[in-house]
Specification:
Length: 277
């Protein structure tokens, strides 16, 4: 039996799971057990074959356990990693552990069990497009450092990040693109593909929370000046994920698909000034 794994059961995670779960055994994994069981029960009522696994994506043991459990159920055909913390939800250290180290651990562990012909997607963020670029040396360190060792890299230190949770978030998301690009080689040796999607401002519980934060005015400005002029929806992100997981994307791996309605373009074209500039 083909197995779908969705890590993170927030608004995007549940929508993606429902889109991809038909005909597959679905493993939902999350740290929040109450949310995990509630989402699973709703999906079971709607006819999906769902099991759950508690996961702490910042723990190698927990992620490897979830990967091994998923592989024990059948052929791991699709993996979608949506777990993440935003600056309004967590302090700098937790963001780095979840959004940076957690992605690295998941790419490694699920890359060791993904089936031939399988595919994965990491949900990153358009914030990674609005933070300072890494140098070539920094990118190489991200590629070659162990997941746990990423926290010891000097450019991810609290001092280098100005003790800013927002900058830690953006830099982690920029690093996700480097991590996915590098992981595509290992996934490719198993006949599988891995890509990422960078959502813009999406109407989820986390997105609404961010809009109410001090950075909300900038985010609203991006949306208003974007080419689409609207917030994104979880279905918009599920559409991108469905494409990258499907046969139409069989020649696509190691890339990031920016799905933001043109919000980043509004900034880079100068229609919306970056704060502090």
């Amino acid at each position: 039996m083909d197995v779908l794994v969705v890590v993170g059961v927030g608004g995007m995670g549940e929508t993606i799971a429902r889109r991809q779960a038909v005909g597959r055994k679905t493993v939902l994994a999350d740290f929040n057990e109450a949310a995990l069981e509630a989402t699973a029960e709703k999906m079971r009522i709607d006819g999906f074959d769902v099991v759950t696994r508690k996961i702490d994506v910042s723990s190698r043991e927990s992620v490897e356990d979830a990967a091994a459990y998923s592989a024990s159920l059948g052929r791991v055909a699709q993996v979608v990693h949506t777990a993440g913390l935003s600056p309004t939800q967590a302090p700098l250290a937790a963001i780095l552990r979840v959004d940076l180290v957690g992605v690295a651990l998941s790419l490694e562990a699920f890359g060791n069990v993904i089936a031939d012909g399988g595919a994965g997607v990491v949900i990153s963020s358009s914030s990674g497009y609005l933070t300072p670029a890494f140098t070539a040396e920094q990118e190489q360190l991200i590629r070659t450092t162990s997941p746990e060792g990423l926290l010891d890299l000097p450019f991810f230190s609290p001092d280098a990040l100005g003790n800013s949770a927002g900058l830690a978030y953006g830099m982690s998301k920029r690093a996700n693109r480097v991590q996915v690009q590098h992981a595509s080689g290992h996934w490719g040796t198993r006949g599988a593909r891995i890509n990422s999607v960078s959502p813009g401002v999406i109407s989820t519980a986390m997105g609404i929370q961010e809009l109410a934060s001090p950075s909300g005015a900038f985010m609203r400005g991006m949306v208003e000046q974007s080419g689409t002029g609207r917030l994104g929806t979880p279905s918009d992100i599920a559409d991108s994920v469905t494409f990258l997981l499907g046969p139409q994307a069989s020649f696509i791996t190691g890339i990031d698909l920016l799905t933001d309605g043109g919000a980043v373009a509004a900034v880079t074209s100068g229609r919306v000034p970056m704060p502090g500039r």
